[in-house]
Design a protein that fits this description.
- It contains four helices and 15 strands.
- It is an alpha/beta fold.
- It has a single domain, classed as Metallo-beta-lactamase, Chain A, CATH 3.60.15.
- The strands form three sheets. Strands 1-2-3-4-5-6-7 form a seven-stranded mixed β-sheet, covered by helices on one side. A six-stranded mixed β-sheet has the order 8-9-10-11-14-15. A two-stranded antiparallel ribbon has the order 12-13.
- A hairpin with a 2-residue loop joins β10 and β11.
């Protein structure tokens, strides 16, 4: 797999079956230190693709099963701290080494990732932001938010997206938990169409900005 980035950050995206969940390896080009974001499965592949990186942390955006298939194996093999939001901690197969509440900064090499607390898809969903790059977990996808189980959660995820993610620059690249990427500028435009229409108070589930 090839690396992406802008000279200040290196990003490798691994699409892991059977749910097409994305694992991201993020590295500092200067020091070679890095992190793994989400652990969908295929531990051997993730280890192989990250072997040139000195992994410092495993960060879990949320603890739905399709993001945790390789968690135990990677945690045991790498022996590095596992980090998750406090509201998700009880659902990990092993205790987290550090708990987040949002507002923290995760540092490795010369890079810093801001932790954004974005509940809605799950109670403790987080996104990670470095200037120009947003790892959105299952909070934001091209065309809409992550799946929500009820209208309260949908209102919550919409608030997370509009108040926290849409406050970032339009040219920010979005790396979601499944599927292809997008930019915040594109998603803001699509959301404007959604916001201009009336909707049922019970709206939830798989919502699309342009057609729901």
């Amino acid at each position: 797999m090839r690396w992406y980035g802008d000279g200040k950050i290196k990003i490798k995206k691994l699409k892991i079956p059977p749910y097409g969940t994305n694992c991201y390896i993020v590295a500092c080009p200067t020091t070679g230190e890095g992190i793994i974001i989400d652990t969908p499965g295929a531990a051997a592949r993730i280890l192989r693709e990250s072997k040139e990186v000195h992994i410092r942390f495993i960060i879990i955006t949320h603890t739905h099963f399709d993001h945790l298939g390789a968690f135990a194996a990677l945690r045991k093999t790498l022996g590095v701290p596992a980090v998750v939001h406090s509201a998700e901690a009880a659902k990990l197969p092993f205790p987290a080494d550090s708990l987040l509440d949002g507002g923290e900064t995760i540092n490795f090499g010369t890079l810093s990732l801001a932790v954004l607390y974005t509940p809605g898809h799950s109670p403790g969903s987080i996104c990670l932001y470095s200037p120009g790059h947003l790892f959105s977990g299952d909070t934001l996808f091209p065309g809409g938010p992550g799946n929500t189980p009820n209208s309260r959660s949908f209102k919550q995820i919409t608030q997370s997206i509009t108040q926290k993610l849409f406050a970032l620059p339009d040219n920010t690249k979005v790396y979601p938990g499944h599927g292809p990427g997008t930019t915040l500028g594109q998603e803001k435009q699509k959301y404007s169409s959604f916001a201009s229409r009336s909707h049922s108070e019970n709206l939830c589930g798989d919502v699309l900005w342009l057609s729901s």
